[in-house]
Amino acid sequence: MPQDCANSIDAALRGRARRVIPGGLWGHLNAANLPEGYPQFFASAEGCRLRDADGREFVDLMCAWGPMVLGYRHPAVEDAARRQAERGDAMNGPAPILVDLAETLVDMIPHADWCLLEKNGTDATTACVTIARAGTGRRKVLVARGSYHGAAPWCTPSLAGVTAEDRAHILHFDYNDAASLQAAAEDAKGDLAAVIVTAFRHDMGRDLELPDPAFAQAVRAVCDAAGAALILDDVRARFRLHLGGSWETIGVRPDLAAYSKAIANGHALAAVTGNEDFRDAATRIYTTGSFWCAAVPMAAAVATLAELQRIDGPGHMRAMGERLRAGLDALAARHGIGIRQSGPPQMPLLLFDDDTEWRRGSVFCAAALRAGAYFHPKHNMFLSCAHTAADIDLALQAAEEGFAAVACMG
Amino acid sequence: MPQDCANSIDAALRGRARRVIPGGLWGHLNAANLPEGYPQFFASAEGCRLRDADGREFVDLMCAWGPMVLGYRHPAVEDAARRQAERGDAMNGPAPILVDLAETLVDMIPHADWCLLEKNGTDATTACVTIARAGTGRRKVLVARGSYHGAAPWCTPSLAGVTAEDRAHILHFDYNDAASLQAAAEDAKGDLAAVIVTAFRHDMGRDLELPDPAFAQAVRAVCDAAGAALILDDVRARFRLHLGGSWETIGVRPDLAAYSKAIANGHALAAVTGNEDFRDAATRIYTTGSFWCAAVPMAAAVATLAELQRIDGPGHMRAMGERLRAGLDALAARHGIGIRQSGPPQMPLLLFDDDTEWRRGSVFCAAALRAGAYFHPKHNMFLSCAHTAADIDLALQAAEEGFAAVACMG
């Protein structure tokens, strides 16, 4: 197909984009970070299928990097969004749907007594940190080394334009290492406002790690002992692992939690939930945005959450993820290729053994893409409720081409 | 109408909201800050008319606090949004409409060689500051005392949860006071990264001030002398005063500018534009969000900008604002009430003389609201292209009731 070629539609769009957008595109969706042949621009999407600007169609395993949890253009979600859009979206205040959504979140999430809504995951994690500081009157925040919590100065992975003071009160520990956590808490002494942790360890390019329950309990104990807030950054994992919150399965509840991505099946929305201890602090901080009361994404969220509950979305995604994982293991074994699969099945990562600079992963992905499946070589992938067993089997057929290409590398 | 009553639909929604949302609502749309009788929840909107949850209809002079520039549910914008939604919104990368929008912005805006897109005005102002620091290798940012630049720790108006370090490199000057600007630049010495200024002085509750051209030239001169970035925070004013940028009329061009609010007629979008000097820095910083490549708001923005150009939106809004201003002046004079009107006609503010705590303004607004027009007692208002002379005259009829109520205060 022509997308690899200099005269493809994608290449022409990239050329135009480079003139008017620094680096061709900001942030995590820049295709410059992807293997040869990956498209930058997409024409359309439906269910778990993506069509690029040159008309190639893929079984998608990235789900817009998380937001697409029920499937692109899900009828029930889009109907709810359209019905709200026919009444109003951004107005001088919210629509009644805000109250329905807030009640739904508080009912669904055991630790939650209240919620705030925003637009970005970064809005939500930053609000959690600010609420924790306001509520405790303290400043230090413990962050796992290498964890991604957003793109604000206190947490963005690039230090360009960031000052030392932006991170003056950030202390580090290692994920799943209770001793390092306790040492960092010691360093914070009487100034510990919060510990922020992702639902599982999902640092780009390395094996995913589920949270050790003893570690999760240690996080809770450190926060309880210090009177600090346990902030669960559930932006990436939320609504795929457990509808009550990603740590419900290990029985550890946060004081504050941040969500975004999948909450409205692709409509722009983020949320913070919190318990009574932090309600007053959440009232005192000032956090807002021009579109934070817009009603359409809220209507989409209510429909998304109802559908996830109705069909047991996490269960379906787990089953599809397990089918994918078993299939990839079998294919790799048949080709004699060493791979490692990690993470929850709903958000899988495939890495190759002895793979300097993800070269094998890139060859695998490029070949699988040509065969019709969109894998990622080093970031966790995402399953959706739109993936059927037949879709997974199509992805596995494409993966077969990928493993064959890796086998040719010798 | 029943909205004032304890048994109104609005009151019932507020009661439910208070249980699940701290303070009943976050941020600037919390109706607790508004006069008696103002609704919190809105059922629908069309053109320049808003309908609250209890079915009362108003001629709206707040325009969703800025985003609604063409009118609620504008057919051309909503058609463009719907057509894009039928193809795709958030995907693994942008749709081709991104390139169209970026080229439109760069063509429309004389200082712009490139753009970035985000979701919130705060995203855009924060990205400007980060780009300025990355580009200059310096840290200090000069901010006008009392200016609102967003809700991030470096700029949010509440200090709850904010640390001193979040603002360690912020220095202050007074808007329209070149001497204070020069003094602040002196204090920054060799560490001046940027001066950030709003398009005009629009601090809540006080008379608006247009920028003195000599002051604007002084900002440019200070930045040029220091090799610092002039950041125009055009989030609030953008696309109402001049389509090329709000300082085009005074002939001073920024290096970086931030937009949001009206850019997509209510769809969630923000933008940064910059010149060549800062392209490399904009490439090096890391700024992103889950929905920043979503295609629907971009399609809405392209349609919004085309329509604003086609109908000379700023000219129409100026004419309607002048009609409103003249009418209010005449009514106030007839009632013998001292008022002050300030700001550009497209974004007017009405304040009453000798008005401690905006009591007269609140009485005026409450009475005008009962008569069918939604004014604001202390924040600048917004005209839209949907306001016709007949709508302005309806708002003036309601204002007549407002002035009569103020006259009764004695």
From TrEMBL, chains A, B:
<dbReference type="InterPro" id="IPR015422">
    <property type="entry name" value="PyrdxlP-dep_Trfase_small"/>
</dbReference>
<dbReference type="InterPro" id="IPR015424">
    <property type="entry name" value="PyrdxlP-dep_Trfase"/>
</dbReference>
<dbReference type="InterPro" id="IPR005814">
    <property type="entry name" value="Aminotrans_3"/>
</dbReference>
<keyword id="KW-0663">Pyridoxal phosphate</keyword>
<protein>
    <submittedName>
        <fullName>Glutamate-1-semialdehyde 2,1-aminomutase</fullName>
    </submittedName>
</protein>
<dbReference type="InterPro" id="IPR015421">
    <property type="entry name" value="PyrdxlP-dep_Trfase_major"/>
</dbReference>
<dbReference type="Pfam" id="PF00202">
    <property type="entry name" value="Aminotran_3"/>
</dbReference>
<comment type="similarity">
    <text>Belongs to the class-III pyridoxal-phosphate-dependent aminotransferase family.</text>
</comment>
